[in-house]
From TrEMBL:
<dbReference type="Pfam" id="PF07228">
    <property type="entry name" value="SpoIIE"/>
</dbReference>
<dbReference type="InterPro" id="IPR036457">
    <property type="entry name" value="PPM-type-like_dom_sf"/>
</dbReference>
<feature type="region of interest" description="Disordered">
    <location>
        <begin position="287"/>
        <end position="316"/>
    </location>
</feature>
<protein>
    <recommendedName>
        <fullName>PPM-type phosphatase domain-containing protein</fullName>
    </recommendedName>
</protein>
<dbReference type="InterPro" id="IPR052016">
    <property type="entry name" value="Bact_Sigma-Reg"/>
</dbReference>
<keyword id="KW-0378">Hydrolase</keyword>
<dbReference type="InterPro" id="IPR001932">
    <property type="entry name" value="PPM-type_phosphatase-like_dom"/>
</dbReference>
<feature type="domain" description="PPM-type phosphatase">
    <location>
        <begin position="43"/>
        <end position="280"/>
    </location>
</feature>
Amino acid sequence: MAVVMSTGLLLYVRRALLRELRQARKVAGAAQSVVLRPLPPRVAGLEVAAARLSAECGATVGGDLYEVIATEHGVRIVMGDVRGHGLTALATVAAVLGSFREAVHDEPELAGVLRRLDRSLARHLRERARAEHPSVGSVPDTPVAEEFVTLLLLEIGHDGEVRGLNCGHPWPYLLEPGRLAALSGDDPLPPLGPFPLPADLPPTDCGRLAPGQALFLYTDGAEDARDGRGRFFPLPTLLGEAVRARPPHPQALLRNVFTGLLRHTGGRLRDDVALLVVRNDRLSRAAAAEPPDRDACGSTAWARPLPTNPRPTQRS
């Protein structure tokens, strides 16, 4: 009798825990959808598609972030990766994205946007450190003080000119029918969090995104993904095949990359992956008839040929 009662109690507890887990995942998923809201398919003449894939089976929250917003200064884009996972990472994502959504409208220069994000992140980490360790000082010696965010800011002007600021994040790829290149830029700044920003923040002039061209942004989980033999995922090869014969469609491109990632890793990702594709679909006759003086790599030709085995910025 005691064995039967114990078994029944264990089954009851197990069902209760499963219900709580399902409810927690539902709440977490709702929070993620509010913070990392779905992007519209078009933003100021640009076709947009984005998606994320979690490394942990059943996970609904992570540290990847992205946003695309049309402003009077142009279309402004952020892509980032918060160190860590779970609800603490989601809180950091919320702090960064909340600041970005306000700053892009207020700040005429991209450097001003980045400084706003840096201040918001620093304030968030200080408040979280005080809440988690109330006995320590304002700069606690805790893991919170070591957290960071890799971040890429882009601005696409009304004429297609692209400018960027990069804080330890992979530069995007430029795609058009038959051509693929890694967007060239200055050496990235350190990730936000551990170090103060320099006094001078000149944005990188990345050239012009012509009609029909697209930018492929990603978090480093895409290039860091390995198969059973330890080989890295060949992201440039897959992108090159995707644009070889026809213009890249953003949604189809996302499906191809995610399918390739899951096939390469056997469905076992070690890190979250977020992808964002922005294609210039502004089909004005003048823009379509006049060849661009520079491509979005900042030169009259492709500014930097793809390396044989490109590697993203290393992070701890």
